[in-house]
């Protein structure tokens, strides 16, 4: 169980029991110190009906307000006590007791009510029973008479006669002097025995009842772990003693209606991942949401496809039971979460803190606190995601990303021996740049990933988003029409959202479009350069043609003048051969080797790469002294930084550098450029738009690019097949892709363990306190 998990903002108030009785002194002082930030609970009132009544029968909706006259330093612990009491109360009936039919007047009914209710009720019943008994006995004494009072007080003598017999079960100062009064005295003593035994039983039984001081977080979290959706619920044991044989049950409750008209509540038990077997301080239980399973409704809530109002029949019941060795009995607590009680995209805040003595303590005041997840990670899936709902306007920005795989298994005709089939990941660089912009602006969106891999079938819904079946595509909030292309999407968003516009407007006066174009040339020129042999010149490359020439043309290496020169040379060669042969021009083939080579392609490409890195080296500050030159766009990254960082990411990969060296393309990355790249990759959202799960998407993106280069090259043998396969294997080794679960591959990477293996002493103490 995760004891110090992270999660959502507190929302309502539900849960448990008294806390200060068994708290450690250091923990109590910690709660007082942090109580100034405690938020008060709100009072909810109103009649309940329909589905609200069903929810009320499972968990009480009311909670006492703490706003009135209580000293501030005591509000925190009082809120915890009341919340704890409420959870235990919910476990014993909650608001359903309001619908209880009359239990009648009997000894068993009184006994049940005394045990169920508070100590005040118990004391009131005991006082009432004794008062009623004394009153009746005093009246009987007055009616029978025959007693002697040494004080000669006729007014109080009957009451003292009855009190001495009923309460002390023996004779007192007022004594019987007749046979009738003596019989009455003995009868009252016998009544006293019965009453004292029953009242003593009430008190002892209530003391022996195991009241769990357990607290459940006000909100359940809808978050992701390695891109996969989860529901988190946090549990706190305020006594901090070890509870054994813990069982936590999450039950999904939905209202259903049969064709015959019957309405009922369906109950589906949700599985938990590694549920705790003991509870000491704080534990977080997690349920992995399966979109195709019964819990798939939570995906609609998590992604914003449906609002909490539309899912008002959604209830999640959490039941906690455990064996308490102190009481030698089972304790329990219950809370029910409605759709409005889920914190979307949040995790629980850390509850560990250090007291004034430097000791680690659990700060229960933070048990309800949640934090937003700043990093959006895509889940690793077997294929394309389910498409968006086209029939209604978007509830928020929707973005379609392009997906691919790092390995296609044995069905891969180009590289069939790379390994087993891997998961679908976001691999589109244009989509990545858009995601970086959105996350930098703090703009939330609903993602969809469409398989755009070469040779794979693209999903049908992609054509409805973009007839060209290209990514990215987006639909603005409240709109039904889709727009395509990263530049178009950015422009539209800048018109409607100030946050996006502010990021796009980040510019430096000393950085112009010329610098941006130089940086953009690096990747495209390299991809075009490796598609030709080491001796191929620019003119010969134009004659060879293909995608390689198109890439060289995009970066300006192949100009219209060069194309015209090649066309004229080929035309003269064809005329010369026509003169030497009687064959028609359609049957004459011009030999590529006869065309003038021109400038060497690879040397030109190497120049482009060097110019790109030299440009960044000059534009970026050498240290932290000049904040205005930390990024290409100033103090903070902008669109130019995003584009450059995505395009140049491969160049910082040693295996890619080796691959280019085998194709006679070499470059040097300066210290300023490396510092800029380190700042970009350290951004919290750098991982938010690429890859899936634990993967950063680099292996899948590299596979997509290299496969296209090999298949589309018109110069046989280039890029070199052996070097290409070695590059892909090295990338998969250095940057493991996301594997599909049933492959048996372990997705957990070594760097995911750093926070555990390299943790602080506080982390170690946290485990000891909470496990």
Plain-language structure description:
The chain has 24 helices and 20 strands. With 771 residues, the protein is an alpha+beta fold. The strands form 6 sheets. Strands 3, 4, 5, 8 and 11 form a 5-stranded mixed sheet that branches. Strands 16, 17, 18, 19 and 20 form a 5-stranded mixed sheet that branches. Helix 5 (119-144) packs across helix 6, helix 9 (429-441) packs antiparallel against helix 18 (639-648) and helix 19 packs antiparallel against helix 22 (721-734). The longest helix has 30 residues, at 179-208. The relative contact order is 0.10.
Helix content: 25-40%
Mean pLDDT: 80
Distance between the terminal alpha carbons, to the nearest Å? 8 Å
Pick out the low-confidence regions. Answer: 1-49, 56-75, 742-771
Largest sheet: 5 strands, mixed
Shape by Cα distribution: elongated
Strand content: 5-15%
Query: What is the tally of beta strands?
Result: 20
Structural class, from secondary structure content?
alpha+beta
A few lines on this structure:
The protein has 771 residues and is of the alpha+beta class. The protein is 39% helix and 14% strand. Strands 3, 4, 5, 8 and 11 form a 5-stranded mixed sheet that branches.
């Amino acid at each position: 169980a995760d004891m110090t998990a992270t999660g959502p903002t507190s929302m309502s108030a539900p849960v448990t029991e008294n806390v200060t009785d068994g708290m450690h002194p250091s923990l109590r002082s910690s709660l007082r110190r942090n109580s100034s930030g405690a938020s008060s609970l709100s009072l909810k009132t109103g009649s309940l009906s329909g589905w609200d009544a069903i929810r009320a029968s499972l968990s009480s909706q009311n909670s006492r307000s703490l706003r009135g006259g209580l000293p501030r330093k005591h509000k925190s612990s009082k809120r915890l006590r009341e919340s704890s009491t409420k959870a235990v109360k919910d476990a014993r009936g909650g608001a359903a007791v309001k619908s209880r039919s009359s239990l009648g007047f009997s000894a068993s009914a009184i006994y049940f009510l005394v045990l169920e209710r508070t100590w005040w009720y118990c004391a009131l019943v005991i006082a009432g029973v004794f008062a009623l008994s004394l009153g009746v006995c005093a009246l009987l004494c007055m009616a029978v008479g025959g007693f002697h009072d040494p004080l000669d007080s006729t007014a109080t003598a009957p009451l003292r006669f009855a009190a001495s017999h009923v309460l002390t079960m023996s004779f007192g100062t007022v004594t019987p002097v007749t046979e009738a009064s003596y019989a009455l005295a003995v009868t009252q003593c016998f009544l006293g025995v019965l009453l004292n035994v029953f009242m003593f039983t009430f008190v002892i039984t209530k003391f022996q009842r195991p009241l769990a001081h357990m607290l459940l977080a006000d909100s359940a979290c809808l978050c992701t772990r390695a891109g996969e959706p989860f529901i988190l619920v946090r549990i706190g044991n305020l006594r901090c003693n070890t509870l054994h044989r813990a069982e936590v049950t999450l039950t999904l409750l939905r209202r259903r209606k049969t064709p015959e008209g019957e309405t009922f509540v369906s109950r589906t038990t949700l599985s938990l991942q590694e549920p705790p077997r003991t509870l000491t301080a704080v534990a977080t239980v997690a349920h992995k949401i399966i979109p195709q399973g019964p819990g798939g409704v939570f995906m609609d809530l998590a992604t914003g496809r449906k609002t909490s109002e539309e899912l008002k029949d959604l209830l999640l019941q959490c039941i906690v039971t455990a064996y308490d060795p102190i009481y030698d009995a089972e304790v329990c607590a219950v809370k029910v979460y409605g759709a409005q009680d889920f914190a979307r995209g949040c995790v629980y805040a850390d509850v560990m803190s250090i007291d004034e003595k430097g000791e680690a303590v659990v700060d229960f005041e933070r048990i309800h606190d949640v934090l937003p997840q700043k990093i959006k990670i895509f889940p690793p899936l077997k294929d394309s995601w389910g498409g968006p709902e086209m029939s209604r306007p978007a509830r928020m920005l929707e973005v379609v990303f392009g997906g691919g795989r790092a390995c296609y298994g044995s069905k891969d005709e180009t590289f069939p021996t790379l390994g087993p089939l891997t998961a679908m990941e976001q691999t589109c660089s244009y989509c990545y740049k858009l995601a970086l912009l959105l996350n930098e602006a703090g703009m939330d969106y609903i993602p969809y990933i469409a398989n755009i891999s070469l040779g794979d079938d693209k999903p049908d819904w992609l054509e409805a988003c973009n007839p060209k079946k290209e990514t990215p595509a987006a639909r603005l909030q409240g709109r039904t029409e889709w727009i395509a292309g990263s530049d178009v999407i950015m422009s539209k968003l800048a018109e409607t959202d100030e946050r996006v516009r502010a990021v796009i407007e980040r510019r430096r006066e000393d950085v112009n479009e010329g610098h941006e174009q130089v940086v953009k040339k690096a990747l495209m020129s390299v991809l075009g350069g490796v598609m030709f042999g080491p001796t191929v010149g620019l003119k010969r490359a134009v004659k060879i043609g293909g995608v390689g020439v198109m890439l060289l043309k995009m970066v300006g290496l192949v100009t219209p003048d060069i194309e015209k020169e090649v066309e004229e040379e080929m035309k003269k060669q064809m005329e010369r051969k026509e003169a030497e042969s009687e064959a028609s021009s359609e049957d004459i083939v011009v030999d590529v080797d006869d065309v003038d080579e021109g400038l060497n392609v690879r040397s030109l490409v190497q120049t482009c790469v060097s110019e790109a890195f030299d440009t960044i080296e000059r534009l970026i500050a050498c240290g932290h002294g000049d904040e205005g030159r930390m990024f290409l766009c100033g103090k903070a990254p902008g669109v130019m930084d995003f584009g450059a960082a995505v395009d140049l990411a491969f160049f910082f990969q040693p295996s890619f550098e080796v691959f280019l060296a085998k194709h006679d393309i070499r470059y040097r990355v300066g210290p300023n450029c490396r510092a800029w790249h380190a700042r970009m990759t350290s951004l919290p959202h750098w991982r938010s738009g690429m890859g899936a799960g634990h993967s950063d998407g680099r292996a899948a993106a590299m596979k997509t690019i290299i496969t296209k280069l090999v298949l589309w090259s018109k110069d046989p043998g280039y890029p070199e097949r052996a070097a290409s396969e070695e590059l892909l294997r090295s990338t998969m080794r250095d940057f493991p892709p996301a594997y599909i679960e049933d492959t048996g591959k372990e997705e957990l990477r070594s760097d995911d363990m750093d926070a555990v293996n390299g943790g602080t002493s506080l982390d170690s103490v946290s485990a000891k306190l909470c496990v």
